[in-house]
Amino acid sequence: MGHEHQYPSRRDILAGGTAMAALTVAPLWSAHAKDAYRLTALPGNARIKPEPAGETMIWSYDGQVPGPLIRARQGEKLRIEFQNKLEEPTTIHWHGLRIPNAMDGVPELTQPPVNPGESFVYEFEPPDAGTFWYHPHVRSDVQLARGLYGALIVDEANPPKVDRDLLWVLDDWRLRGDGSIIDDFAHRHDISHEGRMGNTITINGRPSGLVSVRPGERLRLRLINTANARVFGLRFKGGVSTIVALDGQPVTPHPPERARVVLGPGMRADLIIDVPTGADGSISVVDDYYGDKAYTLTKLVPKGKPLRAAPPPLEALPENPLPEPDIARAEVQEVLIEGGSKGYLEEAIYKGEKFRPRTLFRKHRKIWTLNGVAAHSMTMEPMFTLKRGRSYLWKIKNDTAWDHPMHLHGHHFRILKRNGKPVAHKPWVDTVLLHLDETAEVAFVADNPGDWLFHCHVLEHHVGGMGAVIRVG
Predict the structure, then answer these.
(1) Residue 190 φ/ψ, nearest 5 degrees
(2) Taking burial as the number of CB atoms within 10 A of a residue's CB, which of 21, 164, 369, 383 is the most buried?
(3) C-beta neighbour count of 327 within 10 angstroms
(4) What is the pLDDT of residue 7?
(5) Helix (H) or strand (E) holding 94
């Protein structure tokens, strides 16, 4: 496969602009939090591309993409009865939630895979309010690309005062002109380069369209990047946007760095957007992360009389109960990311045996390593064994030519430094995006016992070996 599927073409962009005139962004909302849900994974069909393309054969939760929005109350028990009606095993991982290890949804590591026709009950009490999501961890590069994912929101006891709470689940799909999925999964090029990039961008499972807003309206916009590999870099041109949470965790309200919200796969952001009250108060949302491949994702178009003359004071979100790491006493550990196309990996360990990279890739489709080891399954000897309750400082270096959103299950960590320089606001996240040759220093308390997955959320990179087990005992 070549580069023809990596980005929307100019024709796609123009077609999207035409569709925008007739469509609105599909809402995805549930009015009330509940304490019990039922989810079923099954095949189906969905309208991903606009007509005249046909519907797309998908895998989904309850026949919809994204799956049903789950809303929960902070600290209260949530029960999800899950049934698998696919023809292969699957699980559900609750991405970003600090929950008991047995509920984390990683096959063999935390639970047996849920086989076709079988069921599994997930029960946990979400300790943190915020924006999270759920997806499988069995053949996740295939199952997510076919549509298996959904959003999970844990409500604050006292949410900020906004006029509307919007949710945008962002994704890209690799589709043929007739709307069918191109099933070249785990392609050698995708594994060794930047991952499976799609050619069709969706918001809430539909082609992006216009968003109708009121002049002066205050929006809380929740963004979730569910794509296999695409990084979104969004500019809200014509409006004022303020970041109030990252990966579900509150952060000191601040404008996006360089006026762009950058979300790697798996990452989330909560924004407060104040719609202008002027004559032309529209806000264009432009994704220009890939430079000359920039396109307009959607546009917020004001209609009606202004709700107010000026924005009200901005409130910070209440903090979640995360244990603060003791940086002075933290144990320092180093994580080196190597491999991939254009990389300098000289040798890799796979299943205890040393390989030259070319040989390893040819025989086993593995080309990425963490600290010299290419992952062979979800159950391996731990890269690190951490003492429960102790603080740790990880120095992560991306010695490759590609982006890597590194995700740690069961925990959040503070980003302290990038390339040796202190990071503003020191945000809590569960995924840190490292660019070409970048380093990051993150710190956390290992307070959640069990064996946890640490991996790149470019799903083809994980398939290609970029994963490890972290044991907290």
Answers:
(1) -65, -40
(2) 369
(3) 12
(4) 45
(5) strand 93-95
**How many CB atoms sit inside 10 A of residue 48's CB?**
23
What is the per-residue pLDDT across 412-452, written as a single tens digit (0 to 9) for each? 999 999 999 999 999 999 999 999 999 999 999 999 999 99
Quick one: CA dihedral 84, 89, 94, 98, positive or negative?
A: positive
Side-chain-facing half-sphere of 388: CA atoms under 13 Å: 9
CA distance 90 to 312: 46
C-beta of residue 402 within 8 angstroms of C-beta of residue 456: no
List, in sequence order, every beta strand (DSSP E) within 387-438.
391-398, 404-408, 413-418, 421-422, 428-429, 431-434
| Torsion sign, CA atoms 75, 79, 84, 89 | positive
Closest by alpha carbon to 78, among 100, 52, 111? 100
181-225 pLDDT, tens digit per residue, is 999 999 999 999 999 999 999 999 998 789 999 999 999 999 999
Non-local CB neighbours of 194 within 8 Å, separated by 6+ positions: 6, 229, 402, 403, 458
What's residue 32's pLDDT? 74
If one counts every other C-beta atom within 10 angstroms of the C-beta of residue 464, the result is 29
Distance CA 368, CA 10 (A): 33
**What's the CA gap between 210 and 61, in Å, rounded?**
26
pLDDT, tens only, 230-280: 999 999 999 889 999 999 999 999 999 999 999 999 999 999 999 998 767
- Helix or strand (DSSP H, E) at 58: strand 56-61
DSSP codes of every residue in 120-185: EEEEE---S-EEEEEE--SSHHHHHHTT--EEEEEE-SS----SEEEEEEEEEE-B-TTS-B---T
Give me 321's structure tokens. Answer: 């109960």
